[in-house]
Design brief:
Blueprint: E1 3-8, H1 13-23, E2 31-38, E3 41-48, H2 51-60, E4 67-73, E5 88-89, E6 95-100, H3 106-115, H4 126-138, H5 143-153, E7 158-164, E8 171-176, E9 181-184, E10 189-192, E11 204-207, E12 212-217, E13 220-225, E14 230-231, E15 236-237, H6 253-259, H7 261-269, H8 289-293, E16 297-302, H9 304-321, E17 325-329, H10 330-333, E18 344-350, H11 356-367, E19 371-376, H12 382-386, E20 389-392, H13 405-424, H14 430-453, H15 455-465, E21 470-475, H16 478-494, E22 497-502, E23 519-524, H17 530-542, E24 546-552, E25 564-568, H18 576-594
Parallel strand pairs: 16-17, 16-18, 18-19, 19-20, 21-22, 21-23, 23-24, 24-25
Antiparallel strand pairs: 1-4, 1-10, 2-3, 2-4, 5-6, 6-7, 7-8, 8-12, 9-10, 9-11, 11-15, 12-13, 13-14
Helix pairs in contact: 3-4, 4-5, 7-13, 7-14, 9-13, 9-16, 14-18, 15-18, 16-18
């Protein structure tokens, strides 16, 4: 949500800012703008709509300067409009500010500033920050101190970039709960919400901590805590290259990311087993037998797709470790006064590591004394930093808003965590462990198999079912969870109304909605539940529904009730979720393609949801 990029150095900042903003488009936004400083004047260009509109505006009204800040805005306070787009000026055009996050006490601050004579030109919470810095500045503080004082009065979350005409050789950045990194160049430095924005120029960065701010000059970076004490961070070098943030010949990032899954899964399995192959070894997790014996329940907390990956974990852990596991969406968990304590392990799952609800859930869990295990993709993100133990999901950049490869990586993490806990607590014997391990190792080539063989059939099913208005995803156990993820993908990118249902629950209400040609996707990979789900599919078929089934190779009797079947390679019952989800991803992708939707940037959605 929202993207920030900033530059100071010998180059004209405008192309750097525009390229950076384009690389951050995946985060989701509805307006864009830049502020550039040259010869004592800050020029702001901003507009509703895409970065391409901003490019056009800059052709009509050029701007240049060696220091600049840029922003893509995802509207929270005030509609998407030119006025509400960032950057925002202080009243005398001396200070310009870009901001991600939400200033929760902005109304009270705004009223105070208005009493002092400040005039507001937008509906945003951000404009308050520009005026506040200005107010402290006018009281005789220098710019850095004015920013620090401002940080002490604003409440909520922020990543900020600040430019001031009196300090043409610096930009100031600050962060609390919204991501921001300071990119380190040679004779030039950067700020960015995420590394793709500046990867063209540098892979080295400081990851700002919570409530820290930085003074950035072309050849110097100083970082301070909120009390003004200088702090020192190690340089983090990103291993990804520019290629990783490009489509590389694919029409969409989503398709590229779907096809990256064999590698992602194999990366996540590499080096996770002891040399003798008999144990799981998870770097970064210090949850041994003693710690685990102290735990009497597990909570898995996340949002959206990450939550569904967590649900896979719930089914597996309960079945294999026989310990009570609750899976909750973070936005509910955080406000329900959950029954957790120091004997609870809370597993939080997040691709971005910045999701506001998940992060707040983590903080609540820690405040109640629970141990928090983060399953996170983005290195150095807030959730990774604040977790007691972190298992990184090694999915690389995920740029398409709809999550695909990150889900697969999260599910693999759930497999590994389950195996680890089961082994430590002695609920899994060596024979079963080896059997599951062997099946795990086959997953990358099995995914590859689906990706190379299933596409023509899936495209055919898309042609057949593209007119569907309502789609149901049904299954039992792990298949039900996979259906939830399939249904979400279809909603997100094809804008098709779809609902996941536990197959056995259909007859308790939703079956009333089944009519001629309603599409029902039946996920039937759990062999122990095969006959049960098959009967439920028979029931919808009898009421005129079209049934598209996803089943394991060999279970051909599903053809008795299904109009069409996609077969996945045979695997251990525990591991079907990853495989069964691949055809669902492709189905949603080709549906959205057929319907002409904006696949990588679906309406109203943002990649990293940093507001509640
Ligand atoms: C769906 C999707 C979202 C995210 C959710 C959590 O395709 O991407 O549902 O899974 O917003 O995001 P993270 O994993 O970054 O916490």
């Amino acid at each position: 949500m929202c993207g920030i990029v900033g530059y100071i150095g010998a180059q004209n900042s405008v192309p750097v800012l525009i390229n950076g903003l384009e690389s951050l488009e995946y985060r989701g936004y509805d307006s864009a703008g830049v502020a550039v400083l040259s010869e004592g004047v800050i020029n702001i260009r901003k507009t509703k709509g895409k970065v391409a509109n901003l490019r056009d505006l800059l052709l009509e009204q050029p701007a240049a300067g060696n220091a600049g800040i840029g922003h893509t805005r995802w509207a929270t306070h005030g509609a998407p409009s030119d006025e509400n787009a960032h950057p925002h000026f202080s009243n005398d055009d001396k200070i310009a500010v870009v901001h991600n996050g939400i200033i929760e006490n902005y109304q009270e601050l705004k009223a105070r500033l208005q009493e002092k004579g400040y005039v507001f030109h937008s509906d945003t919470d951000t404009e308050t920050v520009a005026h506040l810095i200005d107010d402290f500045y006018k009281q005789g503080n220098d710019l850095l101190e004015s920013v620090r004082k401002t940080l002490n009065v604003i409440e909520g979350s922020y990543a900020l970039g600040v430019l001031c005409t009196d300090y043409p050789d610096q930009i100031i950045a600050a962060r609390k709960e919204s991501p921001l990194i300071v990119g380190i160049g040679k004779g030039e430095n950067f700020i960015a919400s995420d590394i793709p924005a500046i990867l063209k120029y540098t892979k080295d960065a400081y990851i700002l901590g919570d409530k820290e701010f930085a003074l950035i000059k072309a050849d110097e970076i100083k970082i301070y805590d909120i009390d003004g004490n200088e702090v020192h961070h190690d340089v983090y070098t990103y291993s990804w290259d520019v290629e990783a943030a490009q489509k590389n010949g694919y029409d969409h990032f989503m398709l590229k990311e779907i096809y990256e899954q064999p590698k992602v899964v194999s990366d996540n399995l590499a080096r996770r087993f002891s040399e003798d192959g008999k144990h799981i070894e998870l770097d970064g997790i210090k949850l041994g037998k003693a710690e685990l014996e102290n735990i009497n329940q597990i909570y898995i907390v996340a949002c959206g797709t990450a939550y569904y990956a967590g649900l896979v974990g719930k089914y597996l852990l309960e079945r294999m470790v026989r310990i009570p596991v609750n899976a909750e969406v973070a936005s509910e968990f955080r406000y329900k006064d959950p029954l957790i304590d120091e004997h609870t392990l809370v597993i939080v799952v997040s691709q971005s590591g910045e999701t506001a609800d998940t992060h707040s859930a983590l903080k609540l869990a820690k405040a109640k004394g629970s141990r928090v295990l983060g399953v996170v993709n983005a290195v150095g993100s807030s959730i990774a930093r604040d977790s007691d133990d972190v298992l990184y999901t090694l999915a690389g950049f995920e740029i398409a808003v709809a999550s695909t490869k990150a889900f697969s990586a999260q599910v693999i993490a759930m497999y590994l965590i389950t195996l680890h806990i089961a082994q430590e607590l002695g609920t899994l014997d060596e024979k079963n462990f080896v059997e599951i391990k062997n099946a795990l190792m086959k997953l990358p080539s099995q995914i590859n198999d689906i990706l190379t063989k299933a596409v023509p059939a899936i495209r055919g099913f898309v042609d057949k079912y593209i007119g569907s208005k309502n789609v149901f995803y049904v299954g039992r156990g792990l298949d039900y969870v996979v259906g939830m993820e399939g249904s979400l993908k279809l909603k997100e990118i094809a804008y098709l109304h779809s609902e996941p249902y536990a197959a056995g629950e259909l007859k308790h209400g939703p079956i009333a909605l089944i009519e001629s040609a309603t599409l029902v996707v039946g996920v039937v990979t759990q062999e122990a539940l095969f006959d049960k789900t098959k009967s439920n599919l028979q029931e919808v078929k009898a009421r005129g529904a079209k049934v598209l089934a996803i089943a394991m190779q060999g279970n051909t009797s599903i053809e008795e009730v299904a109009d069409d079947v996609i077969y996945i390679p045979r695997t251990h019952w525990m591991l079907t979720s990853v495989l069964a989800n691949i055809p669902q991803q492709l189905f949603a992708y080709y549906m959205a393609l057929g319907l002409g939707e904006d696949i990588d940037k679906p309406r109203n959605l943002a990649k990293s949801v940093t507001v509640e």
